[in-house]
Each structure stands twice: as structure tokens, then as C-alpha cells.
Amino acid sequence: MKITAYLLAGAGALTSALPNMGKPLYKGWMGVAFVIATVVSNAVIALIFYGLITPMALVFKVLGRDCLRLKRGEGSHWVPVTMPADAERYERTF
Fold it and tell me: Where are the domains of the chain?
């Protein structure tokens, strides 16, 4: 344990005195950290999706609940609007 502390202190002193010597260590460590962050973030997103959203969707499907009000078989919600085609309309866009 003591020798590890001495090695780390020596490496810290060396890279403080000569910052370019620490760049390979920094780049390697950041590469490892990037891989770990990618794996952990994807695992958390998968847990949220399969642990929370999927069970809620299954319960809503069984209960027949339609949160978005997407009633199948009904007509469109589109309301046609007729606008005059005069030149003044193009000057007033909003």
C-alpha cells in the first residue's frame, strides 16, 4: 500500500513538472472512461425502458387505456382552412 502511494506521488510530481509526459496516461484513462460511460449509460436506459415503460404499456394495453386518444377508425382531425389569395396576405405572414 505504501509503495503504491509513493509511485503515485512520484508520477504526479513527474507529470506536474513535465506535463507532456502525462498525456499518454491521460488519453488512455479517458479511453477507458469513455467505454465505461457508454456501457453504463446504455444499461441505465435499457433498465428504465424494460423496467418501467414496458410494464406500464402492457398494463395500459390490458386496461384499454388510450392516453394519446388515438381512436382507430375515426376520421381525421384536419380542419381545412380557406385563405384569400390576395397580395396583402403575403405581407402579413403572422
Answer: 17-64
